Amino acid sequence: MMTVIAVAAGLLTGILSGFGIGGGSLLLLYLTLFAGVDQYQAGGINLLYFIACAPAALYSHIKNGLVQKDAVKWCVAAGVLTSIAAALAAARMDTGWLRRAFGVFLLYIGAKELFTKRKQSGTEGK
């Protein structure tokens, strides 16, 4: 039964990741809170999961014209540099502190999403 739940959680978070909803964050929460996986191992699983999900989502976004190719160059360069810096910093930090910081970050993003009003497209002239 636990295998069925794990597969369902992976499938659901994979679908949400494809839509850009943040399925990887949800997978981390599932792994650490419900599956009993420690934070370090859950992070590694999440990275492997991302490698499997990202190409399909990227293909879909490119096909639908949602990727700005000029912005990709800058984002990749900045992403590589900050990923290296963050990995080096994380290797020197206490895991408990990282867990709390990530939790605060998720709460902040969730609250921002809940309480930020967005303009609806097609309503500018009304």
From TrEMBL:
It is found in: Cell membrane; Membrane. It is a multi-pass membrane protein. Pfam families: TauE (PF01925). Keywords: Cell membrane, Membrane, Transmembrane, Transmembrane helix. One of its GO terms (cellular component) is plasma membrane. Coiled coil: none annotated. Its main location: membrane. InterPro entries: TM_pro_TauE-like, TSUP/Inactive_protease-like. The chain crosses the membrane at residues 42-59, 71-91, 97-115. The keyword Transmembrane applies. Belongs to the 4-toluene sulfonate uptake permease (TSUP) (TC 2.A.102) family. This is Probable membrane transporter protein. It comes from Agathobaculum faecis. The lineage of its organism: Bacteria, Bacillati, Bacillota, Clostridia, Eubacteriales.
